[in-house]
Amino acid sequence: MIDAVADPVAPALFDIAMDYPFARPDHSFLFVDGAVRALPASGSESLDAALAENGAAPLRDRTAVLAYGANAAPERLWRKFESLKPGVVFPVLKARLFDFDVVYACHFSRYGALPATLAPSPGTVAEVALTYLDGEQLARMHETELSSRSYVYGSPRSYKGAAGRSGA
Questions:
Q1: pLDDT at residue number 19
Q2: Of 56, 78, 110, 141, which sits most exposed with the smallest number of CB within 10 A?
Q3: Residue 44 to residue 49: CA distance in whole angstroms
Q4: Cis omega (within 30 of 0) on the bond before 11?
Q5: What are the CB-based long-range contacts (under 8 Å, 24+) for 34-43?
Q6: How buried is residue 30: exposed, middle or buried, by Cβ count under 10 Å (0-12/13-18/19+)?
Q7: 162 pLDDT band (50/70/90 cuts)?
Q8: Do the strands 116-133 and 89-104 form a parallel or antiparallel pair, or are they unpaired?
Q9: What pLDDT does residue 163 have?
Q10: pLDDT per residue over 110-142, tens digit each?
C-alpha cells in the first residue's frame, strides 16, 4: 500500500475509479470519436443513414453488445476505443433487461473501480444499453474485457432491442 501512495499515477487512477460508472446520457446516442451525437428520429434505415454519413458500417454489419456499468458511458468508451481513431462510430441504444439486475461485482477493475455485473432477479427490469459494434470495435471490446475472467461473451436466446426489433 505504501508503494501505491508514493506512485504519482495512483491518484489519477483513484480519480478514474471514483468516477465509475461514469456519466451517461439518459437517451440513445451515436458515439462518434468520443462525442455524443443525436440519433435520427427512429428506424434502422435512418440509423443506417446516420452511420453512412459518418463513414461507418450499417447496422446489419454490427454485433449488438449488452452494455451496463461503464460500457454505456461515453467517457469510458472513448478510453477503450481511442486507439482506433479516427472513425470510431457506433450507436448506443437504451434498452431494458428483464429478470436481471445490475449489481456490484466481487472484484476490482484494472483501474481500481468496483465494476458492475449482472445477477438474476425475477421481476426486475434493469436499464441497460446495447452498443452496436463493427468487427474491429468488437475485437477491441474483447481486448479490454476478456482478460478479466469475469467478461462473458455470448448470444442471448432472444432479445427485444430499443427499436422493438426482436432477434434470436
A1: 64
A2: 110
A3: 8
A4: no
A5: 34/74, 34/77, 34/78, 34/82, 34/85, 34/88, 35/74, 36/74, 39/91, 39/93, 42/163, 43/163
A6: buried
A7: very low
A8: antiparallel
A9: 45
A10: 776 777 788 999 999 999 999 999 999 999 988
Q: How many CB atoms lie within 10 A of CB 153?
A: 12
Left if phi > 0, otherwise alpha if psi is -120 to 50, otherwise beta: which for 77?
A: alpha
Domain ranges across the chain: 2-154
Residue pointed to by grid coordinates 506512485: 7
Placement of cell 477493475 in the chain: 109
User: Domain 2-154's class?
Assistant: alpha beta
Contact 36, 29 (CB under 8 A): yes
In this structure, what is the dihedral angle of CA atoms 97, 100, 101, 102, given to the nearest 10 degrees? -70
What is the structure's pLDDT at 52? 94
